[in-house]
Amino acid sequence: MAEPTDSSTDYDVIVIGAGAVGENVADRTVQGGLRTVIVESELVGGECSYWACMPSKALLRSGAAVTAARRVGGAAEAVTGELDVAAVLRRRDSFTSNWSDEGQVRWLAKAGIDLVRGHARLTGVREVTVTHPDGSTTVLTAAHAVVVSTGSAALLPDIPGLAHVAPWTSREATSARSIPAGLAVIGGGVVAVEMATAYAALGAHVTLVVRRRLLGGMEPFAGDLVTTSLRESGVTVLTGVSTTSAVRTEDGRVALTLDDGTTVTAAEVLVATGRVPHTGDLGLETVGLTPGDWLTVDDTMLVRGAAPELAGQWLYATGDVNHRALLTHQGKYQARAAGDVIAARAAGRPVDDAPWGTHVATADHAAVPQVTFGDPEVASVGLTQAAAEKAGHRIRVLDYNLGWVAGSSVHADGYTGTARAIVDLDREVLLGVTFVGQDVAELLHAATIAVVGEVPIGRLWHAVPSYPTMSEVWLRLLEEYGRP
Which band of pLDDT confidence, cut at 50, 70 and 90, is reported for residue 8? Predict the structure, then answer.
Protein backbone atom coordinates (compact mmCIF):
# COMPACT_ATOMS: atom_id res chain seq x y z
CA MET A 1 0.00 0.00 0.00
CA ALA A 2 1.30 3.46 -0.87
CA GLU A 3 2.45 5.71 1.93
CA PRO A 4 0.26 8.76 2.55
CA THR A 5 1.54 11.93 0.88
CA ASP A 6 2.57 14.96 2.94
CA SER A 7 -0.86 16.47 2.25
CA SER A 8 -2.67 13.46 3.75
CA THR A 9 -1.16 13.39 7.23
CA ASP A 10 -4.29 14.64 9.01
CA TYR A 11 -6.44 11.76 10.24
CA ASP A 12 -9.33 11.13 12.58
CA VAL A 13 -7.49 8.27 14.31
CA ILE A 14 -3.84 7.18 14.50
CA VAL A 15 -3.10 3.62 15.67
CA ILE A 16 0.48 2.86 16.73
CA GLY A 17 1.19 -0.82 16.17
CA ALA A 18 -0.18 -3.03 13.40
CA GLY A 19 -0.44 -6.27 15.30
CA ALA A 20 -3.72 -8.13 15.62
CA VAL A 21 -4.91 -5.68 18.28
CA GLY A 22 -4.06 -2.51 16.36
CA GLU A 23 -5.60 -3.95 13.21
CA ASN A 24 -8.86 -4.55 15.05
CA VAL A 25 -8.94 -1.04 16.48
CA ALA A 26 -8.39 0.44 13.02
CA ASP A 27 -10.99 -1.82 11.44
CA ARG A 28 -13.63 -0.71 13.95
CA THR A 29 -12.84 3.02 13.61
CA VAL A 30 -12.94 2.81 9.81
CA GLN A 31 -16.26 1.00 10.00
CA GLY A 32 -17.36 3.80 12.32
CA GLY A 33 -16.67 6.32 9.57
CA LEU A 34 -13.31 7.63 10.78
CA ARG A 35 -10.27 8.10 8.54
CA THR A 36 -7.60 5.95 10.15
CA VAL A 37 -3.87 5.36 9.72
CA ILE A 38 -1.86 2.58 11.33
CA VAL A 39 1.89 2.87 11.99
CA GLU A 40 4.17 -0.18 12.14
CA SER A 41 7.93 -0.49 12.59
CA GLU A 42 8.15 -4.22 11.90
CA LEU A 43 5.74 -6.64 10.21
CA VAL A 44 2.05 -5.89 9.76
CA GLY A 45 0.33 -8.61 11.78
CA GLY A 46 2.60 -8.27 14.78
CA GLU A 47 3.84 -10.70 17.40
CA CYS A 48 0.93 -13.16 17.25
CA SER A 49 1.23 -13.76 13.51
CA TYR A 50 4.99 -14.20 13.27
CA TRP A 51 6.56 -14.98 16.67
CA ALA A 52 3.87 -16.08 19.11
CA CYS A 53 0.36 -17.58 18.78
CA MET A 54 0.46 -19.02 15.28
CA PRO A 55 4.04 -20.32 14.89
CA SER A 56 4.09 -21.71 18.43
CA LYS A 57 0.86 -23.65 17.93
CA ALA A 58 2.09 -24.88 14.55
CA LEU A 59 5.24 -26.21 16.25
CA LEU A 60 3.14 -27.94 18.91
CA ARG A 61 0.45 -29.46 16.72
CA SER A 62 2.45 -32.16 14.92
CA GLY A 63 3.78 -33.62 18.15
CA ALA A 64 0.33 -33.45 19.74
CA ALA A 65 -1.21 -35.32 16.80
CA VAL A 66 1.33 -38.16 17.00
CA THR A 67 0.98 -38.37 20.79
CA ALA A 68 -2.82 -38.51 20.49
CA ALA A 69 -2.59 -41.34 17.94
CA ARG A 70 -0.31 -43.31 20.24
CA ARG A 71 -2.95 -43.14 22.97
CA VAL A 72 -5.57 -44.97 20.92
CA GLY A 73 -5.34 -48.70 20.41
CA GLY A 74 -5.27 -49.55 16.71
CA ALA A 75 -3.99 -46.12 15.78
CA ALA A 76 -0.95 -46.57 18.03
CA GLU A 77 0.15 -49.57 15.99
CA ALA A 78 0.08 -47.45 12.84
CA VAL A 79 2.56 -44.94 14.25
CA THR A 80 5.86 -46.45 13.20
CA GLY A 81 8.09 -43.41 12.81
CA GLU A 82 9.15 -40.20 14.47
CA LEU A 83 8.29 -36.62 13.63
CA ASP A 84 9.68 -35.24 10.38
CA VAL A 85 11.30 -32.15 11.89
CA ALA A 86 11.95 -30.47 8.55
CA ALA A 87 8.30 -30.92 7.59
CA VAL A 88 7.17 -29.46 10.93
CA LEU A 89 9.33 -26.40 10.38
CA ARG A 90 8.07 -25.98 6.82
CA ARG A 91 4.49 -26.14 8.09
CA ARG A 92 5.37 -23.55 10.76
CA ASP A 93 6.80 -21.32 8.04
CA SER A 94 3.55 -21.53 6.08
CA PHE A 95 1.66 -20.07 9.03
CA THR A 96 4.00 -17.08 9.17
CA SER A 97 3.93 -16.65 5.37
CA ASN A 98 7.72 -17.03 5.64
CA TRP A 99 7.72 -13.81 7.69
CA SER A 100 6.27 -11.78 4.84
CA ASP A 101 3.44 -9.37 5.63
CA GLU A 102 2.27 -8.83 2.05
CA GLY A 103 -1.06 -10.55 2.70
CA GLN A 104 -1.77 -8.49 5.79
CA VAL A 105 -0.84 -5.27 3.96
CA ARG A 106 -3.38 -6.21 1.29
CA TRP A 107 -5.98 -6.69 4.01
CA LEU A 108 -5.31 -3.18 5.35
CA ALA A 109 -5.88 -1.74 1.87
CA LYS A 110 -9.10 -3.73 1.45
CA ALA A 111 -10.30 -2.53 4.87
CA GLY A 112 -9.60 1.12 3.97
CA ILE A 113 -6.83 1.58 6.53
CA ASP A 114 -3.77 3.67 5.59
CA LEU A 115 -0.33 2.30 6.51
CA VAL A 116 2.80 4.23 7.45
CA ARG A 117 5.98 2.24 8.10
CA GLY A 118 8.44 3.47 10.69
CA HIS A 119 8.96 4.13 14.38
CA ALA A 120 6.22 6.24 15.97
CA ARG A 121 6.64 8.63 18.88
CA LEU A 122 4.12 10.90 20.54
CA THR A 123 5.31 14.48 20.04
CA GLY A 124 2.30 16.36 21.30
CA VAL A 125 -1.43 16.18 21.92
CA ARG A 126 -2.94 14.07 19.13
CA GLU A 127 0.38 14.26 17.30
CA VAL A 128 2.64 11.38 16.27
CA THR A 129 5.99 11.74 14.48
CA VAL A 130 7.10 8.73 12.45
CA THR A 131 10.76 8.11 11.67
CA HIS A 132 10.96 6.02 8.50
CA PRO A 133 13.64 3.39 7.77
CA ASP A 134 15.50 5.88 5.58
CA GLY A 135 15.69 8.41 8.42
CA SER A 136 13.05 10.80 7.07
CA THR A 137 10.10 11.80 9.24
CA THR A 138 6.40 12.36 8.86
CA VAL A 139 4.19 14.19 11.36
CA LEU A 140 0.70 12.72 11.71
CA THR A 141 -2.13 14.48 13.51
CA ALA A 142 -5.38 13.01 14.79
CA ALA A 143 -8.65 14.89 15.08
CA HIS A 144 -10.06 12.43 17.60
CA ALA A 145 -7.76 9.73 18.97
CA VAL A 146 -4.34 8.13 19.12
CA VAL A 147 -4.31 4.46 20.11
CA VAL A 148 -1.19 2.76 21.45
CA SER A 149 -1.16 -0.93 20.50
CA THR A 150 2.57 -1.56 20.69
CA GLY A 151 2.39 -4.77 22.72
CA SER A 152 5.12 -6.21 24.91
CA ALA A 153 8.55 -7.82 24.69
CA ALA A 154 10.23 -10.64 26.56
CA LEU A 155 11.69 -9.70 29.93
CA LEU A 156 15.41 -10.43 30.27
CA PRO A 157 16.07 -10.96 33.99
CA ASP A 158 19.14 -9.44 35.62
CA ILE A 159 21.15 -12.65 35.86
CA PRO A 160 24.95 -12.20 35.66
CA GLY A 161 26.24 -13.23 32.24
CA LEU A 162 22.83 -13.96 30.75
CA ALA A 163 22.81 -11.06 28.30
CA HIS A 164 26.21 -12.16 26.99
CA VAL A 165 25.23 -15.72 26.03
CA ALA A 166 22.74 -14.54 23.35
CA PRO A 167 19.72 -16.14 25.01
CA TRP A 168 16.62 -17.04 23.08
CA THR A 169 13.33 -15.34 23.79
CA SER A 170 9.97 -16.54 22.50
CA ARG A 171 10.84 -14.97 19.15
CA GLU A 172 13.89 -17.14 18.57
CA ALA A 173 12.13 -20.23 19.90
CA THR A 174 9.20 -19.90 17.50
CA SER A 175 11.30 -18.95 14.46
CA ALA A 176 14.29 -21.31 14.85
CA ARG A 177 15.61 -22.84 11.61
CA SER A 178 16.84 -26.00 13.36
CA ILE A 179 16.32 -27.85 16.61
CA PRO A 180 19.20 -27.72 19.12
CA ALA A 181 20.32 -30.95 20.75
CA GLY A 182 19.61 -29.42 24.15
CA LEU A 183 17.49 -26.51 25.31
CA ALA A 184 17.43 -25.03 28.81
CA VAL A 185 14.33 -23.01 29.62
CA ILE A 186 14.31 -20.44 32.42
CA GLY A 187 10.72 -19.87 33.57
CA GLY A 188 7.59 -21.78 34.46
CA GLY A 189 4.74 -19.97 32.71
CA VAL A 190 2.81 -20.56 29.51
CA VAL A 191 5.69 -19.88 27.08
CA ALA A 192 8.03 -22.12 29.07
CA VAL A 193 5.56 -25.01 29.13
CA GLU A 194 4.57 -24.73 25.48
CA MET A 195 8.11 -24.45 24.14
CA ALA A 196 9.36 -27.24 26.40
CA THR A 197 6.56 -29.44 25.07
CA ALA A 198 7.25 -28.54 21.44
CA TYR A 199 11.03 -28.88 21.55
CA ALA A 200 10.93 -32.17 23.45
CA ALA A 201 8.62 -33.60 20.77
CA LEU A 202 11.00 -32.30 18.09
CA GLY A 203 13.92 -34.21 19.60
CA ALA A 204 15.69 -31.75 21.90
CA HIS A 205 16.68 -32.66 25.43
CA VAL A 206 14.86 -29.99 27.44
CA THR A 207 15.55 -28.82 30.98
CA LEU A 208 13.13 -26.48 32.70
CA VAL A 209 14.50 -24.27 35.49
CA VAL A 210 11.52 -23.05 37.51
CA ARG A 211 11.88 -20.69 40.44
CA ARG A 212 8.72 -21.91 42.17
CA ARG A 213 6.34 -24.26 40.34
CA LEU A 214 4.94 -24.63 36.85
CA LEU A 215 1.92 -22.49 35.93
CA GLY A 216 1.89 -20.87 39.34
CA GLY A 217 -1.06 -18.55 38.65
CA MET A 218 -3.40 -21.41 37.82
CA GLU A 219 -5.05 -24.10 39.93
CA PRO A 220 -2.27 -26.15 41.61
CA PHE A 221 -3.36 -29.41 40.01
CA ALA A 222 -2.74 -27.91 36.56
CA GLY A 223 0.95 -27.41 37.19
CA ASP A 224 1.21 -30.80 38.90
CA LEU A 225 -0.32 -32.70 35.96
CA VAL A 226 1.78 -30.82 33.42
CA THR A 227 4.96 -31.40 35.44
CA THR A 228 4.28 -35.14 35.61
CA SER A 229 3.55 -35.34 31.89
CA LEU A 230 6.66 -33.37 30.91
CA ARG A 231 8.85 -35.61 33.01
CA GLU A 232 7.27 -38.71 31.47
CA SER A 233 8.11 -37.31 28.03
CA GLY A 234 11.78 -36.95 28.97
CA VAL A 235 11.89 -33.30 30.03
CA THR A 236 13.95 -32.52 33.13
CA VAL A 237 11.84 -30.24 35.34
CA LEU A 238 13.73 -28.53 38.16
CA THR A 239 11.43 -26.65 40.53
CA GLY A 240 12.23 -24.40 43.45
CA VAL A 241 15.56 -23.31 41.94
CA SER A 242 16.82 -20.09 40.38
CA THR A 243 19.58 -19.30 37.89
CA THR A 244 22.42 -17.30 39.43
CA SER A 245 24.74 -16.96 36.41
CA ALA A 246 25.19 -17.94 32.77
CA VAL A 247 28.23 -18.39 30.54
CA ARG A 248 29.12 -19.74 27.09
CA THR A 249 31.63 -22.53 27.40
CA GLU A 250 34.55 -23.11 25.02
CA ASP A 251 32.50 -25.60 23.01
CA GLY A 252 29.75 -23.00 22.46
CA ARG A 253 27.26 -24.43 24.91
CA VAL A 254 25.48 -22.44 27.63
CA ALA A 255 26.16 -23.33 31.26
CA LEU A 256 23.67 -22.13 33.87
CA THR A 257 24.65 -22.14 37.53
CA LEU A 258 21.71 -22.64 39.88
CA ASP A 259 21.27 -21.46 43.46
CA ASP A 260 21.45 -25.04 44.75
CA GLY A 261 25.00 -25.30 43.45
CA THR A 262 24.22 -27.46 40.42
CA THR A 263 24.83 -26.63 36.75
CA VAL A 264 22.63 -27.08 33.69
CA THR A 265 24.31 -27.18 30.29
CA ALA A 266 22.55 -26.95 26.93
CA ALA A 267 23.15 -25.85 23.36
CA GLU A 268 20.76 -22.90 23.81
CA VAL A 269 18.87 -21.21 26.62
CA LEU A 270 15.36 -19.81 26.32
CA VAL A 271 14.32 -17.06 28.72
CA ALA A 272 10.58 -17.13 29.46
CA THR A 273 10.22 -15.13 32.66
CA GLY A 274 7.62 -12.52 31.77
CA ARG A 275 6.98 -9.49 29.58
CA VAL A 276 7.74 -5.76 29.57
CA PRO A 277 5.75 -3.07 27.72
CA HIS A 278 6.88 -1.61 24.40
CA THR A 279 6.72 1.96 25.71
CA GLY A 280 10.37 2.86 26.25
CA ASP A 281 10.77 5.03 23.15
CA LEU A 282 7.21 6.10 22.50
CA GLY A 283 7.39 9.74 23.59
CA LEU A 284 5.23 9.20 26.66
CA GLU A 285 7.08 11.98 28.48
CA THR A 286 5.53 14.52 26.11
CA VAL A 287 2.08 13.79 27.56
CA GLY A 288 3.05 13.46 31.21
CA LEU A 289 3.59 9.68 31.31
CA THR A 290 6.68 7.65 32.16
CA PRO A 291 8.58 5.87 29.36
CA GLY A 292 8.87 2.14 29.92
CA ASP A 293 5.73 1.92 32.07
CA TRP A 294 2.59 -0.05 31.39
CA LEU A 295 -0.28 2.26 30.39
CA THR A 296 -3.16 2.33 32.86
CA VAL A 297 -6.59 2.56 31.22
CA ASP A 298 -10.25 2.63 32.16
CA ASP A 299 -12.66 0.03 30.80
CA THR A 300 -13.08 1.94 27.53
CA MET A 301 -9.28 1.71 27.10
CA LEU A 302 -8.82 5.47 27.67
CA VAL A 303 -5.40 6.14 29.21
CA ARG A 304 -5.54 7.47 32.75
CA GLY A 305 -3.24 10.23 33.93
CA ALA A 306 -3.25 13.58 35.70
CA ALA A 307 -1.28 15.51 33.08
CA PRO A 308 -3.26 18.27 31.35
CA GLU A 309 -2.06 16.93 27.99
CA LEU A 310 -4.28 13.88 28.50
CA ALA A 311 -7.47 15.91 28.82
CA GLY A 312 -10.04 15.50 26.08
CA GLN A 313 -10.40 11.71 25.78
CA TRP A 314 -7.89 11.24 22.99
CA LEU A 315 -5.20 8.74 24.10
CA TYR A 316 -6.10 5.05 24.28
CA ALA A 317 -4.09 1.86 24.89
CA THR A 318 -5.15 -1.63 23.85
CA GLY A 319 -3.60 -5.08 24.18
CA ASP A 320 -0.55 -6.14 26.17
CA VAL A 321 0.64 -2.56 26.65
CA ASN A 322 -2.11 -1.87 29.21
CA HIS A 323 -1.22 -4.98 31.26
CA ARG A 324 -4.84 -6.04 31.80
CA ALA A 325 -4.71 -9.45 30.12
CA LEU A 326 -1.66 -10.32 28.02
CA LEU A 327 -3.52 -12.52 25.54
CA THR A 328 -4.21 -11.85 21.87
CA HIS A 329 -7.90 -12.66 22.09
CA GLN A 330 -8.38 -10.31 25.04
CA GLY A 331 -6.45 -7.60 23.21
CA LYS A 332 -8.73 -7.94 20.20
CA TYR A 333 -11.74 -7.81 22.53
CA GLN A 334 -10.39 -4.56 23.97
CA ALA A 335 -9.75 -3.30 20.43
CA ARG A 336 -13.36 -3.79 19.39
CA ALA A 337 -14.56 -1.85 22.44
CA ALA A 338 -12.00 0.92 21.94
CA GLY A 339 -12.60 1.31 18.21
CA ASP A 340 -16.34 1.53 18.72
CA VAL A 341 -16.16 3.97 21.63
CA ILE A 342 -13.79 6.24 19.69
CA ALA A 343 -16.28 6.33 16.83
CA ALA A 344 -19.18 6.95 19.22
CA ARG A 345 -17.40 9.81 21.00
CA ALA A 346 -16.32 11.35 17.70
CA ALA A 347 -19.91 11.37 16.47
CA GLY A 348 -21.38 12.54 19.77
CA ARG A 349 -23.37 9.31 20.15
CA PRO A 350 -24.19 7.80 23.56
CA VAL A 351 -21.44 5.73 25.15
CA ASP A 352 -22.44 2.40 26.70
CA ASP A 353 -19.78 2.11 29.40
CA ALA A 354 -21.76 0.27 32.08
CA PRO A 355 -20.41 -3.18 32.97
CA TRP A 356 -20.82 -5.56 30.02
CA GLY A 357 -21.73 -2.63 27.76
CA THR A 358 -20.77 -2.28 24.11
CA HIS A 359 -17.91 0.11 24.78
CA VAL A 360 -16.11 -1.59 27.67
CA ALA A 361 -13.87 -4.62 28.28
CA THR A 362 -15.54 -5.89 31.45
CA ALA A 363 -14.39 -9.48 30.94
CA ASP A 364 -10.77 -8.45 31.57
CA HIS A 365 -11.44 -8.30 35.29
CA ALA A 366 -12.69 -11.79 36.13
CA ALA A 367 -13.74 -13.70 33.02
CA VAL A 368 -10.58 -14.17 30.96
CA PRO A 369 -10.28 -17.48 29.06
CA GLN A 370 -6.83 -18.94 28.44
CA VAL A 371 -5.40 -22.16 27.03
CA THR A 372 -1.89 -23.45 27.62
CA PHE A 373 -1.19 -25.84 24.76
CA GLY A 374 1.04 -28.28 26.57
CA ASP A 375 0.44 -31.98 27.11
CA PRO A 376 -1.97 -32.05 28.80
CA GLU A 377 -3.70 -28.83 27.77
CA VAL A 378 -4.80 -26.42 30.49
CA ALA A 379 -7.96 -24.47 29.72
CA SER A 380 -9.34 -22.01 32.25
CA VAL A 381 -11.68 -19.07 32.57
CA GLY A 382 -12.51 -16.76 35.43
CA LEU A 383 -11.27 -17.11 39.00
CA THR A 384 -9.22 -19.87 40.56
CA GLN A 385 -10.11 -21.08 44.04
CA ALA A 386 -7.36 -18.91 45.54
CA ALA A 387 -8.45 -15.82 43.60
CA ALA A 388 -12.11 -16.31 44.52
CA GLU A 389 -11.26 -16.66 48.20
CA LYS A 390 -9.00 -13.61 48.06
CA ALA A 391 -11.85 -11.62 46.51
CA GLY A 392 -14.08 -12.53 49.46
CA HIS A 393 -16.55 -14.78 47.69
CA ARG A 394 -18.34 -17.54 49.60
CA ILE A 395 -17.58 -20.48 47.35
CA ARG A 396 -17.82 -24.20 46.84
CA VAL A 397 -15.20 -26.06 44.81
CA LEU A 398 -16.38 -28.87 42.53
CA ASP A 399 -13.75 -31.33 41.27
CA TYR A 400 -14.18 -34.23 38.88
CA ASN A 401 -11.81 -36.71 37.28
CA LEU A 402 -12.08 -36.22 33.51
CA GLY A 403 -10.86 -39.76 32.97
CA TRP A 404 -14.14 -41.05 34.40
CA VAL A 405 -16.21 -39.43 31.64
CA ALA A 406 -17.32 -41.86 28.91
CA GLY A 407 -16.32 -39.51 26.12
CA SER A 408 -12.80 -39.21 27.54
CA SER A 409 -12.33 -42.96 27.71
CA VAL A 410 -13.25 -43.22 24.02
CA HIS A 411 -11.04 -40.24 23.15
CA ALA A 412 -7.83 -41.75 24.54
CA ASP A 413 -6.90 -44.97 26.32
CA GLY A 414 -6.03 -44.24 29.94
CA TYR A 415 -7.22 -40.64 29.67
CA THR A 416 -5.88 -38.48 32.51
CA GLY A 417 -7.37 -35.13 33.44
CA THR A 418 -9.20 -33.03 36.00
CA ALA A 419 -12.04 -30.51 35.91
CA ARG A 420 -12.76 -27.89 38.56
CA ALA A 421 -15.63 -25.43 38.87
CA ILE A 422 -15.82 -22.60 41.42
CA VAL A 423 -19.39 -21.81 42.50
CA ASP A 424 -20.49 -18.53 44.07
CA LEU A 425 -22.81 -19.86 46.78
CA ASP A 426 -24.60 -16.55 47.30
CA ARG A 427 -25.66 -16.17 43.65
CA GLU A 428 -25.37 -19.84 42.58
CA VAL A 429 -23.38 -19.02 39.44
CA LEU A 430 -19.94 -20.08 38.29
CA LEU A 431 -16.96 -17.83 39.04
CA GLY A 432 -14.35 -19.96 37.30
CA VAL A 433 -13.72 -23.25 35.54
CA THR A 434 -10.46 -25.11 34.84
CA PHE A 435 -9.99 -28.18 32.66
CA VAL A 436 -6.70 -30.09 32.41
CA GLY A 437 -6.40 -32.94 29.92
CA GLN A 438 -5.87 -33.89 26.31
CA ASP A 439 -7.85 -31.67 23.90
CA VAL A 440 -9.73 -29.76 26.62
CA ALA A 441 -9.27 -26.45 24.78
CA GLU A 442 -12.50 -27.02 22.90
CA LEU A 443 -14.41 -27.42 26.18
CA LEU A 444 -13.49 -23.92 27.27
CA HIS A 445 -15.93 -21.72 25.42
CA ALA A 446 -18.94 -23.37 27.06
CA ALA A 447 -17.37 -22.50 30.40
CA THR A 448 -16.66 -18.95 29.22
CA ILE A 449 -20.31 -18.48 28.26
CA ALA A 450 -21.46 -19.83 31.63
CA VAL A 451 -19.12 -17.49 33.55
CA VAL A 452 -19.68 -14.35 31.45
CA GLY A 453 -23.43 -14.97 31.19
CA GLU A 454 -23.68 -15.75 34.92
CA VAL A 455 -25.90 -18.70 34.03
CA PRO A 456 -27.66 -19.94 37.18
CA ILE A 457 -26.74 -23.45 38.29
CA GLY A 458 -30.41 -24.39 38.13
CA ARG A 459 -30.55 -23.45 34.44
CA LEU A 460 -27.31 -25.32 33.65
CA TRP A 461 -29.11 -28.56 34.50
CA HIS A 462 -31.14 -27.98 31.34
CA ALA A 463 -28.03 -27.67 29.15
CA VAL A 464 -27.81 -31.39 28.38
CA PRO A 465 -24.39 -32.59 27.12
CA SER A 466 -24.36 -35.02 24.22
CA TYR A 467 -23.34 -38.60 25.00
CA PRO A 468 -20.65 -39.86 24.79
CA THR A 469 -18.59 -36.66 24.65
CA MET A 470 -16.08 -35.13 27.01
CA SER A 471 -18.62 -32.35 27.60
CA GLU A 472 -20.50 -34.76 29.84
CA VAL A 473 -18.14 -33.52 32.54
CA TRP A 474 -20.58 -30.62 32.90
CA LEU A 475 -23.26 -33.04 34.11
CA ARG A 476 -20.82 -34.69 36.50
CA LEU A 477 -19.84 -31.34 38.00
CA LEU A 478 -23.52 -30.48 38.50
CA GLU A 479 -24.08 -33.82 40.19
CA GLU A 480 -21.22 -33.00 42.53
CA TYR A 481 -23.07 -29.81 43.44
CA GLY A 482 -26.46 -31.51 43.81
CA ARG A 483 -29.89 -31.13 42.26
CA PRO A 484 -31.86 -27.94 43.07
Answer: low
Q: If we measure between CA atoms, which residue out of 409, 327, 418, 332 comes closest to residue 372?
A: 327
| Those residues with Cβ within 8 angstroms of residue 269's Cβ, 6 or more apart along the chain or in another chain | 162, 165, 167, 168, 183, 184, 185, 186, 246, 254, 256
Distance CA 283, CA 277 (A): 14
CB 234 within 8 A of CB 205: yes
Interior angle at CA 418, CA 413 and CA 419, nearest 5: 125
Query: How far apart, in whole angstroms, are the C-alpha atoms of residue 16 and residue 278?
Result: 11
Residue 484 pLDDT grade (very low, low, confident, very high; cuts 50, 70, 90): confident
119-124 and 114-117 beta bridge pairing: unpaired
Residue 337's nearest CA partner among 299, 305, 303, 295 is 299
User: Strands across the sheet with 236-239, in order?
Assistant: 236-239, 205-210, 182-186, 268-271
Cα dist. 239→210, 232, 266, 358 in Å?
5, 16, 18, 44
| 161 CB-near residues (< 8 Å, 6+ apart) | 245, 246, 247
pLDDT in tens, 370-399: 999 999 999 999 999 999 999 999 999 999
Report which of 377, 456, 354, 368 is spatially closest to residue 64, judged by C-alpha positions: 377
Pairing between β-strand 137-148 and β-strand 315-317 as defined by DSSP bridges: parallel
Is this prediction's pTM over 0.85? yes
CB burial string 283-298: b at 16+ within 10 A, e below: bbebbebeeeebbebe
